[in-house]
Amino acid sequence: MARGRPRKYKSAKEMQDRIDQYFAECDEQGRPYTITGLALALGMDRQRLLNYSADDEFYDTIKKAKGKCECYAEERLFQGGNVAGVIFNLKNNYGWRDKTEQEINVNVSLADALRELYDG
Fold first, then answer.
1. 58-67 CB contacts, 8 Å cutoff, 24+ apart
2. Predicted local confidence at residue 107, as pLDDT
3. What's residue 89's pLDDT?
4. Chunked in runs of 10, what are the mean pLDDT values of the chain (120 residues)?
5. What are the φ and ψ backbone dihedral angles of 39, each rounded to 5 degrees?
6. Are 58 and 65 in contact (CB under 8 A)?
7. pTM of whole model > 0.90?
8. Distance between CA atoms of residues 32 and 37, nearest Å
């Protein structure tokens, strides 16, 4: 029994053809590359596009298309204009952060911790 919505694209090649068409249309019309624009060109919403990337068959295709959109946004940072909007896009769609996060990994055995506590 099939579950969920049926796939719009039967293969990654079929999807890639439409993705290529989207980027070509953006270039011809002077429009920016966006994830939402890509999703609409594929006949779906942004979340459904992201859901396709969970499927191994479509993962590389979508990752490459998202990378092209991300590259476009990143390049806009160096061209001026609405930099705040570009930064917002990069943070919300591509996981960019303003801060450096440090992960501290403490690898102390319980016995060592207790010995340190009692030996003072």
1. 58/9, 58/12, 58/15, 60/12, 61/12, 61/15, 61/16, 61/19, 62/15, 65/19, 65/38, 66/35, 66/93, 66/94
2. 65
3. 81
4. 69 96 97 95 93 92 95 85 82 80 66 70
5. -60, -45
6. no
7. no
8. 9
